[in-house]
Sequence to fold (382 residues):
Amino acid sequence: MKIGITCYPTYGGSGVVGTELGIELAQRGHEVHFIAYQQPIRLNTKQPQIFFHEVTVSQYPLFEYPPYDLALATRMAEVADIYNLDILHVHYAIPHSVSALLARQMLAAQTNGKSRKLPFVTTLHGTDITIVGADRSYLPVTRYSIEQSDGVTAISHYLKQVTLKEFEIRNPIEVIYNFVNCDTYKRDPKAAENRAEFAGKDERILVHLSNFRPVKRICDVIEIFDRVQKKVPSRLLLMGDGPDRSQAEWLVNKKGLRNQVEFLGKVDRVYEKLSIADLMLVPSEMESFGLAALEGMACEVPAIATAVGGVPEVVEHGRSGYLAAVGDVETMAGYAIDILADEKRLREMGKVARWEAQSRFCSSRIIPEYEKFYERVLERAA
Fold:
């Protein structure tokens, strides 16, 4: 198949999943065309089956905010026409599904004898539904673009139910979980040696990975770590960047943790850091899935997370990690201290986490689900 993919190219879950999906599809022999305003962060591989098409947004004094959605629709239609795409797959409803709908209509309305069908699939990732879509000013267009999609997927059963309830969607929504490449994300056999770059021999390594938005509660990460390091010698690695970084840096300095906390910024190969870690902290206010937790699990790193959204579908409390209420840093720190103090139980839980990732969320299991979904959409559109 020739597949067009549009996702936000930034350091967020939807962009990561959209990019990794394209890479996996290309490795399985499909031709993949990314269409976005810049190259996705994780698109750092060169494959003959992968193409990137930049969306250029013209700047005019008339527009206070340049119409990216219209420029995207135009570029989608151009790429689909020139490269004869079979299907578009957009990640995030707003504005990507609206742009895909316009592109489909533009191609269908061509009068040069080249009129054609271009089906598109929308994958809902969470914020497009739980925050943006719930804004009454966006709700009608979000609902319309979802219902006009030729196929709709959600990354968790939680998100599917929220979408059906809040938007009263008539279209069927299929749950296809996020995934991780288990051949790439795995425990480093030389973890003990490589840990020396960040921690002493008797220190534990805790990690957090996010886009540092308020919903990720980065300051809770630091509050948890502050309590942990008083009981268990440890270091904290923070991967990512975003609006709450300065607040987090201020809190680290205030608590005297500058020598124990490292801000690594945006990391391309996060698996290299995850594979030497002992514990992942995910105290988010909301997660529709919990991709960071899954990536850690694949590297035998249990997660201490909040029992919100789709996280309980990924992390099983007491088995592959621990769950607590939002903001309950005392309980989360307690779980972390207990497990870090017990090497045998920590490694056993890490093995279980890895097994869960492999048996339920490995890319070798999930990518074929997307391929079958595309095939069903194309059959209906024929």
User: Anything to note?
Assistant: Residues 5 and 246 are 33 Å apart (CA to CA). The first strand starts at residue 2 and ends at 6.
